[in-house]
Amino acid sequence: xxxxxxxxxxxxxxxxxxxxxxxxxxxxxxxxxxxxxxxxxxxxxxxxxxxxxxxxxxxxxxxxxxxxxxxxxxxxxxxxxxxxxxxxxxxxxxxxxxxxxxxxxxxxxxxxxxxxxxxxxxxxxxxxxxxxxxxxxxxxx
Length: 141
Hints:
By secondary structure, the protein is of the alpha/beta class. The chain has helices at about 15-30, 65-75, 95-100, and strands spanning about 10, 35-40, 45-50, 80-90, 110-115, 120-130, 130-140.
């Protein structure tokens, strides 16, 4: 986290939602899993597992039908598209150059789950905007 004296940004993602994301990642392994997160302000409210249209172990693209259905549901619930989730089945939970290049939602949080050690999944949150990556503290509160 950068900036002397700057207060670190933190987001709230309940333990149950975190568990849903990890379970989806494990179920899709060895492919990358993906999903969308509904929320408001600094708090995630609901996780929507989606299909990876690319069916790839190294890239993801939310299936267009899922994207439409989930974004409509999020809007109907009066929530925001708060975050975008995906897994890294074999690498660390940090945005890859491809993740950065394809990060088209600068206001969204990007949550990445590493399954490099599947017995100990790691979930981390980031903001990606203008090619810059900033980690955000993830709280289960």
